[in-house]
Write a structure and sequence with these properties.
Length: about 300
């Protein structure tokens, strides 16, 4: 296993764990603040931390060509972020995260179209197994939501929002991969926060209101964690192909179950744990196979 791939896996796992913690903060904020305001706050509060990372990297130059290249990704991030944050407000944390697993399932195929990456059989198998695990994990979630007193119609809209988010997320990850090696993680991090923030100002002002004072520490925490997790994931995607890192997204499910139980009294169902076990096993196997392939290790006869 190459050192670069070991480091990529470490950055990827750490980034996903931090993102899961940020999701818990988003869910808390979405219960009292408008989703667009939460989305705007997430990027505005992350920007100072992203700038610190950029400064520590030697203040690499941001060119006009970079701004043009990242403009589309910024719009996709802003839209996907608003959808995700709204869905977290109407669904249990683990359910929403499980539905987001549609994204890593299709990232290898989106990357094949956009980046001309070769789709390995290990990724096809892992995606299939991961999908089965996701279906098992989410089974019964809708009935549980209604039984606990949540709005069933809003839950279904949340499902649709998460599916659209997953598609947009898969596209932006491929765009990230296309620029990560060229621009570096510091620039990708700055533009991945500044551009979505600029695009969200007008809609947040039109539909939302000024956040409550009690919410401000949570916005700051969300920004710090978001900036660090984005940096770690950018490092991961810069060191390995998108289809190597994508399956690691599944490890967010155990974190979501833990945070949902600890902070929102959302008791994970047995199906959730079974699905999580299948998904994590698929991730680990896929990562092992991909790193072997990247290192040129031949299969034993």
């Amino acid at each position: 296993m190459q050192r670069s791939h070991i480091a990529a896996l470490g950055f990827g796992l750490g980034g996903i764990a931090l993102f899961s913690g940020m999701d818990a903060i988003i869910k808390h904020l979405s219960s009292s603040e408008h989703a667009l305001v939460v989305a705007l706050g997430r990027y505005v509060c992350a920007l100072p931390f992203a700038l610190v990372i950029w400064a520590r990297a030697g203040r690499p130059s941001v060119t006009l060509e970079m701004l043009k290249a990242h403009a589309l990704r910024g719009a996709i991030i802003a839209t996907a972020g608003a959808l995700f944050m709204w869905a977290l407000g109407v669904m249990p944390l683990a359910d929403a995260i499980t539905l987001s697993f549609v994204a890593p399932l299709i990232i290898p195929f989106v990357a094949a179209v956009m980046l001309k990456e070769r789709v390995r059989m290990a990724n096809v198998v892992a995606s299939g197994v991961g999908f089965v695990g996701a279906v098992i994990a989410v089974s019964g979630g809708g009935d549980a939501a209604v039984a606990s007193g949540r709005d069933g119609a809003l839950y279904q809209l949340g499902v649709l929002a998460m599916l659209l988010f997953s598609l947009l997320y898969a596209v932006q990850v491929s765009l990230l991969r296309s620029r990560a090696e060229r621009d570096g993680s510091a620039i990708v991090g700055v533009l991945g926060t500044a551009l979505p923030a600029l695009l969200l100002v007008a809609p947040a002002a039109a539909f939302g209101s000024v956040p409550a004072t009690a919410s401000l520490p949570f916005f700051l925490g969300m920004g710090a964690i978001g900036a660090m997790s984005l940096w770690m994931l950018t490092e991961a995607y810069a060191r390995a192909e998108a289809q190597v890192i994508a399956p690691l997204e599944f490890t967010a499910l155990p974190w979501a179950a833990l945070f949902g139980y600890a902070f929102f009294a959302e008791v994970p169902r047995v199906e959730l744990w079974l699905g999580a076990a299948i998904i994590v096993a698929a991730c680990l196997w896929s990562g092992w196979r991909n790193t072997r392939d990247a290192a040129g290790i031949a299969e034993a006869p």
